[in-house]
TrEMBL record:
PROSITE patterns: AMP_BINDING. Residues 434-509 form the AMP-binding enzyme C-terminal domain. Keywords: Ligase. SUPFAM superfamilies: Acetyl-CoA synthetase-like (SSF56801). Residues 43-386 form the AMP-dependent synthetase/ligase domain. Belongs to the ATP-dependent AMP-binding enzyme family. This is AMP-binding protein. GO terms for biological process: fatty acid metabolic process. One of its GO terms (molecular function) is medium-chain fatty acid-CoA ligase activity. It holds the Pfam family AMP-binding.
Amino acid sequence: MDLPFVVATLTRRGLLTPGRPIRIVSQLNALRTWGWSLAGELRQAAARDPGRPAIIDEDGIELTYQDLLERAERTARSMRARHGLQPGDRIGVLCRNHHGLIETIVAATLLGVDAVLVNTGLSAAQLRTVAEEQQLRLLVHDDEFAERVLTLPAELPRLDERAREELVAGALPGELRPPERDGRIIVLTSGTTGTPKGARRPTPHGFGPLVSIIDRIPLHVRDRVMIAAPIFHTWGFAALQVCFALRATIVLHRRFDPAATLAALAAHQCDALFAVPVMVQRLMEVPAPDPRPSLKAVAVSGSALPGGLAPKFMDVYGDVLYNLYGSTEVSWASIAGPDELRQAPTTAGRPPHGTRVQILDDDGRPVPQGRVGRIFVGNEMLFEGYTSGASRESRDGLLDTGDLGRLNADGLLFVDGRADDMIVSGGENVFPSEVEDLLAGLPQVREAAVIGVPDPEYGQRLAAFLALHPGETLDSDAVREYVRRYLARFSVPRDVVYVKYLPRNATGKVLTRELRRYVS
């Protein structure tokens, strides 16, 4: 990434403003000594702004950057002394969004230990498999998961919230030095179809990744930011990294509740919100507060924006919505800003600075403009492979996302869905997202999902699942006729199923395996 662009962006976002020389020297020394890991980012923030609030929990706990660093260091020293953790070991972290989760992750990176961020939606059986496959040496978990961890091997030490606080309180004095290897953050894939895979996240090597994001999303130093997206998810963890780099004040709630989120945004005068699309959809289902939160940015990622949601949200909260398309494996691919979402509400936007996106056919050749193909992405934060040793197909430094998409004449990216979600019905290729976006535009529909189910005549047929707004009704034949009016014949769903809500995992993705139970 070119230096003039980096300097200009850092200046624009307030990161190069003057300060007390001794603190600036300490800040730079922290990055030089500890690098760009989460531990290094926290140390630089504590060096520059030690008394600034770092975290505000929903239960009223407020920690400064110096407080947070000291608690993470005490946790690290106790984990090393009591559990013998060494660089290269792995611990599991099964926690919702609160200060204890962040302290534990930072403590692991301080020791060079890999932190496996465990999806809170995993079943007991999936959790047991993850613990075995990742060879966990320790599991830190919230109290609410006490019953779920009972099936884990007895020899695996577990720390609940009380035990974790005892680690902090009972830490012996000592000094932590940079580990011989960086601790990796291992993010688990969403696991909607089985046991999730562990993906090793790389440690940044400079300002490049931060600049790529904040150039397009207007976040500034010392902003107040609410992270509603789960931090165990790639997007929530990326938000944490950005907030540390910006020395932001982070507002956290363990669970997402739309009314409570709006109240917190106003009470804490938040400048920005990190969320997943379904959370934005839920915010639209409760009355907007008066006055409304004065947000500069609502940044979403993790799944496709439902059709029509972007302009509806911006009509209420202003042109502050930013949609980042990416994945655990490629980090980010593109970002759509308010202007682009007004122009094309379902677009994934354009690649940020330093990122390449190509649409290729099955032989690796670029496809013509507007033609659907496989999305390949290149940037400096591509994942380092799965912990199993497997990787993804790559071509000329670009990694396969597993998604299908297209670029229009203006260079905007549109994602048509997962390659393995494409439905072949009677020899015709159908992308569920196109039908979903159309159905989501019906005023009676709260949310919609379309999947392929086996069919003896056509191979597959479309099944639409609709959750309606309270008090609304729809006729199935009218739904089919509506689709027939706007899309091709083979896009009309044979089955129309009405459900109270769509089953989703903890990151908001629809669980298609649950939907298939409704259709024989």
